[in-house]
Design a protein that fits this description.
two-stranded parallel ribbon; 12 helices
Length: about 350
């Protein structure tokens, strides 16, 4: 029997992956596969909480699956949320162990609902957006995960998951659910090239992010136009956001030697920002070329990969089914034989 701890993490199907996503989360997922039992979900139910197009959602889901495998996620560790209906079943049960007050205090609901209301006078804010933290809790608890790798912006959601697990255990009189721990690892925060005071994000527009499959000409142009400071701080310890972001990207790409050389040049006042941008461009292109080659190979048998993900979702679902069966026994809900 494996003594490895279990990890659960998930990502919404937005199709493309940019370097902010990659360095901030997905690169870490790839590394964790060697040390833990990892389960990674593409959570398409969560994508329904905001306005969306059905055909685009399905396409984005498969596109993201292909992209994740291309950058190093093992297919056997991947599942699609909607292929495991036990997630939504457990979410309903857990919603009965979560208070309205807890959900109303979730900052992401406030932020997203406000964002939605400012876009239209007839803004529709779904009940799903309000209740999705419970579905997120179900995503984690259904696999009895020991750890969840999260960023600071997700701490509140994980704390809610822990509260729900503990309340469930208390009410059924059994320490059933593991209260998952936060797994913090050092992950760089990559900022927008066009506005380095903001995180790299697709929602800000094309000039604010670099895809991990970016066309070479577009990548070169985006880095070339990256916002820097006026150069007045060269030769000092002060480093403004744009320059800091360039060095953060070099570090994330593990370009230690060239980064050290350029940093020394910055401190003695001799650094050319053109040289810094060129180094960043080449470092990112190296990653893009690596990932693009893998994706090219995967696209040769796209149907085969889809079947593989359906099969892995089926295998991962077995654990979810075990959890639902036991939860129903504990809560007095009628059970069926699997």
């Amino acid at each position: 029997m494996s003594t490895k701890k279990r990890i659960l993490s998930a990502i919404q199907p937005t199709g493309d992956i940019h370097f902010g996503n990659y360095f901030g989360a997905v690169q870490n997922w790839v590394r964790l596969q060697e040390e833990y039992i990892c389960t990674y979900g593409v959570v398409d139910y969560h994508a329904m909480t905001m306005p969306y197009e059905p055909k685009k959602l399905r396409q984005n889901t498969w596109d993201l699956i292909i992209n994740l495998v291309a950058i190093g996620i093992k297919p056997e560790n991947l599942f699609i949320q909607s292929l495991v209906p036990e997630h939504t079943e457990l979410a309903w049960i857990l919603s009965c162990f979560c208070s309205h007050g807890e959900l109303s205090r979730m900052t992401q609901f406030k932020d997203k609902s406000q964002q939605s209301s400012t876009k239209s006078d007839d803004a529709f804010i779904s009940a799903g957006l309000f209740g999705y933290p419970v579905l997120q809790a179900a995503d984690i608890l259904i696999y009895r995960a020991d750890y969840v790798p999260v960023g600071k912006d997700q701490e509140q959601h994980l704390e809610l998951t822990r509260n729900i697990a503990q309340r469930f255990n208390s009410r059924v009189g059994k320490e059933y659910f593991v209260a998952p721990e936060t797994l913090f690892t050092e992950t760089p925060k990559i900022m927008s090239l066009a506005d380095p005071k903001k995180k790299m994000s697709k929602s800000l527009g094309p000039k604010h992010y670099v895809s991990v499959f970016e066309r070479e000409a577009d990548l070169r142009n985006k880095v070339k136009k990256a916002q820097m400071d006026s150069g007045e701080h060269r030769g000092t310890e002060v480093m403004l956001e744009g320059v800091t972001n360039m060095f953060a990207i070099l570090k994330a790409c593990e370009k230690t030697e060239i980064s050290a050389q350029l940093r020394a040049a910055y401190l003695d006042g001799s650094l050319s920002y053109v040289d810094l941008k060129n180094a960043v461009t080449e470092a990112l292109l190296e990653k893009v070329n690596e990932f693009s080659e893998r994706k090219k190979e995967l696209m040769k048998d796209k149907k085969g990969l889809k079947n593989q993900i359906k099969a892995s979702s089926f295998e991962i679902r077995k654990r979810a089914q075990e959890t639902i069966k036991e939860v129903k026994e504990l809560t007095g809900i009628m059970n069926v034989r699997f």
